[in-house]
Amino acid sequence: MARKLPRKDVVIIGLGWTGAILAYELSSAGLDVVAIERGPWRDTATDFPPSSAPDELRNVIRLGLFQQPAQSTVTLRNNLNQAALPVRKFGSFTPGNGLGGAGVHWNGMTYRLMESDFNWRTHNEQHYGASAIPDQMTIQDWPLSFQELEPYYDQFEKLAGISGQAGNLQGQIKPGGNPFEGPRSSEYPTPPDRQPYTPTMFAEAATTMGYHPFPIPSGNVSQSYTNPLGVTMGQCSYCGFCDFFGCGNYSKASAQTCVIPALIRQKTFEARMNANVTKINLDSTGKKATSVSYVDDNGEEWEQPADLVLVCAFSFNCVHLLLISGIGMPYDPVAGTGVVGRNYAYQCTSGVTVHFPDKILNPFIAGGAVGMALFDYNGDNFDHTGLGFIGGGVLQACQTGGKPLSQLSSLPGDPTWGSGWKRAVKNNYQTTYALGTQGAVQSYRDACLDLDPTYKDKYGSPLLRMTFDWHDNELKMSAYITGKLAEIGKAMGADQVIPHPRTGPYTVIPYQTTHNTGGAVAGDNPSNSVVNKYMQSWDVPNVFVFGACAFPQNVGFNPTGMVGALACWGADAIKQQYLKNPGPLVAI
Amino acid sequence: MRHIMSRISLGGGAVLAAAAMLFLAHGASAPNTSQPADPQTIAAGKYLVDAGDCVACHTVPGGAPFAGGTVINTPFGKLLGPNLTPDVATGIGGWTDDQFVRAVKYGISRRDHYLYPGLPYIYFNKVPRADILKIRAYLGTLPAVSNRVHADQLPFPFKIRWLMFGWNLLFFKNTGDYQADPGQSAEWNRGAYLVQGLGHCAACHTAKNFLGGDRTGHELQGAVVDGWNAPSLVNDPHTGIAAWSVDDVETYLKTGHNQYADASGDMAEVVSNSTSHLTDADDRAIGVYLKSLAGSAAAALAPIASTDPAMIAGGQIYVDECAACHTGAGTGLPRIFPTLAASPIVQAETPATLLRIVLHGGRSVATTPAPTASAMPAFGGQMTDQEIADVSTYIRNSWGNAAPQVSAGQVSAER
User: A51 to chain B nearest CA, in Å?
Assistant: First the structure.
C-alpha cells in the first residue's frame, strides 16, 4: 500500500537536462518542486574526479553510468511480424541513469534544427512533389517554427556555454560558421574549440571541394565560462574521455556543470533519488493527473500528489510511462490509429576509415564535440532529385578520443587477435582515423513503440516494445552521404579510404547512437501527436512531456540542442501561460 | 571559528592560582529583564550573529539552530558549543541581559565561572553592549530547544576553570568597546571593528605564543590552524594579500572566490556562514582595513633554482597531473580552478593546506553568486610522498612564487 505524501506544485520525473532546467525555472518562479529520479545523485567532484573518472573498463565496457537492464529494458523486433526479445545488455543505444541522465555521458554536440526541419513534410512536398514521400513514411511538420524557438536555443546555448562559430548571425552569413543554419540572434557564448590536426585536414580538403566546414558547436567549452545562473565551467583539457564518461573538469555541459549548483540552492526544490516512478495517476475523468506513484530503493511505494506533472525521463522511457499510465491513445501500427508510440525513429550512422601512413594523428588530443563538420549533405541542402531518398546527415571529423579499449582502429586484413593484431594496432593507432556521418531517419508507419505482450519489468509493468528497421530511404541516404564523405577522405590524401555505409537489418549489438526519437511527438492536432507545441499532453493538460520523444522524425545531427531549447520553451510557456490559466494552451 | 582552543596552552598555573582571589573581575550587576524586541532590532541581531559566525560553534550541521552540542576538538580535550536557544533549563532563556553581555564581552559565565576562549571574548570585548543585546534579541526569537550541553569535556587539569583567570591576565586586554580612529575614514573604522571584534579574524590568522595567546607584533600575519593554513591577511608579497585589491577582498568575502583564491576548509565555513551574508559595504570595509595594514617584517625568500632536482622532477609531474586545470603558467581559471602563482596558501611557510589538498582533495565553497563549488581530486592514492613533495616544491617556487622546499617527511606526516 503506497503511502501518500504532502502535495507539491510540480513533480518532475527524471532529473537530467530537461528535468533540471524545468526544476530551476519553476522553483525560481516560486513553485514547490520535487524531482524524482530513478538513479543516484552524481556529483562532478565526488563521482567524476579526473584522477579516477577516465576508467574505460567501468564506463565503456561495463556501462557504469547507464540504465541497467535489471532496472528496465526494452524488447526489440525488426518488424511487426516478429516476436520481440528483451535487450539484455544495452549496445546500440545507452540510456542514462541518475542525476544528469544521458546528458552526463554525451559528447556535447549542440546543433540547432534548420529552418526546413521544422516544416519537413511541407518542404519536401513543395520541392519534390507529394509523391516523393512514400505512403508508409509518416513524417510531419513541427507545430512551431524556428523563429519561435530561436530565443530558447539561445537560452540553452548560453546556459550550456556552447563553443561555436555563428554561420548566420541575424541573417548575415558569416565565414567559418555553418551557412545552412537559421538566423541566430547572437554569437555562441564561447569561441569555437581549437581544432586538432585531422579535423583541420578534413576542413581544408572540404573547403577546396567547395563545401562549408565549420567547428562543431560544442559543449566541451573552449574557455572558462560563467553562465546566467552564475555557474562556472572550466576550459576543456582535451582529455578524450567524453562519451560514456562524466566530466571531472567542469568542461562538458551537463545538468551537473550548468544547472545543479544553482538548482540545489533553491529553497523550494527537492530531489528524491533512487526512486522509480511507476505510474502517473489520473482522476476519474482521465483528464487530470493527480499524483505519481514511485518505488524507492527499499522497495517501498509512495504516492506523490502534484498539480503539475512533468515527464522528463529519457526519450523512450517517457513514452513507456505514458503508455502504462493510460495517457493518450496508444498507437496501433496495423490499424494506423492512436498516437502514443507513433513515429519512433533513430539515426543512421556510418563512417569512413582513412589511413595516412606518413602522419601522426594523435587521436587522444580529443573532446567529444571537438571536430569539424559540414551540412552540405544534410536536410535538403542538396538537390535530391532522382536520388530516391529524402534527408541527409552531417559529415564530420570529430576527434572524440583514442581510448585504449574502445577506440583502436583496424584496417581490412588486419588480424583480429594475437601478436598480429597487436602489431596492427600499433601501426594504426597514429595513422588511422574514423570520419563519420549521422544520418537522419524518417518516421514510418511500422516503426513504433508499444507495450510488450510478454515481458515485464521488476515492478510488474510490461516492457516497452520497439519495432524498428532501416528503410530504403535511409539505406540509400547512408550510401550516398558516406560516398561523399569518402571523397573528402581521398581529398585529404589518405592512401586507404574505406567507406562503411549503414546496411540492414538494424541490430542492437554494436553501439551506434543514443539519439532515439519520437513516440510522443509534437503536432498541431491530437490526431497526429501526443503533445501540442508547448509539449503539453493533448489528453491530460496538467502533464507535459519533454525530450526527444517529441521529434516527429529524426534529424541528421545530435538532438540535444533541440531537447534543451524545447525545455526552455516549455518552461516559459508554463510560467507565462499555464500558471495564469491552467488548462490546454492550444485549443482543440 | 572552532579552533581557538587548539592553540591555547593552559600553562602558568602558579601565576593563575596566585591571582585566583581576583576571581570576579567583572562581577554581575543586578539581574534585569529584556523587553520584547522590535523587528529591526531582531534583524540587526541576526546580522551580527552572521558577522560573528556564531553558528559555527553553536549549531550542529543539520541540527536545530543554536541548540548547541557542536563538538570542538582541542589538543586538551573536547568542548561542546553551548545551547543558545531561549530554553530556560538548558539554554539562555533564564539569563539576564547583563549575564549575557558579561559572557560575550568578558568570558564570565552566568554562574561566575571563567569561560574558555573557545568563545572568542578576547575579540568580542570590542563589541558594544548595544550590539550584544541585539544578538540576544535575535537569539530570543529562536525556538527553545531542550538540549543540555556539558560544554566542558576537558580532562584534569585543563578543566580547572579558574586557571583562565591568569590566562586572561596575560592575554585578555579588556580594552572595551572598539574606539574609532579619528584619523581614518568611517569605512576603515567599520572594517577595523568587524575584523578586530565580531569577525574575530585574529583567532585563526594571528599566530599564538606558547601559552596560546596572540603573538604581539604578528597580528593577522598568518598561522596554521587544525592542519590548515590561515594565511597572512596583511600586505606580504608572497604569503599575504599584497597583490589583492580592495575589490578582490570584497569579492572573496562575498562569493568565496576571486582571482587569487577559492575558499575551502574552515574558511569555506566562514564564507558560507558569515561573510557571504554581510552587506557589500561591510565586506568592502574589511578590505579597506586589511589593505591598510603594513606587511610583516619577514624578509622575502628567493625561489629555489629551476635546476634543482626537486624542481625538475616536480615540473614534470606538474605537466602530467596539474597543468590541465591550473594551466602551464600556474594561473588557474577564475572562479573554478585556483591560481597557484601568487597564491598565499601555496607559499605559506608551512605547506599545510597545499599538502592536505593535494593528498586528500578539497572542495571550494558554494555561494549564491558563485554556486559551482569546484573540487580538487585527491592524489594521495596515486603519488608517492616524494612525488608530492617535489611537485609541491615546484609549485611553491615557480611563476614568481618562493617558499621553502617540501620534504617527503612533511608529506608523510600529513597523510
Answer: 6
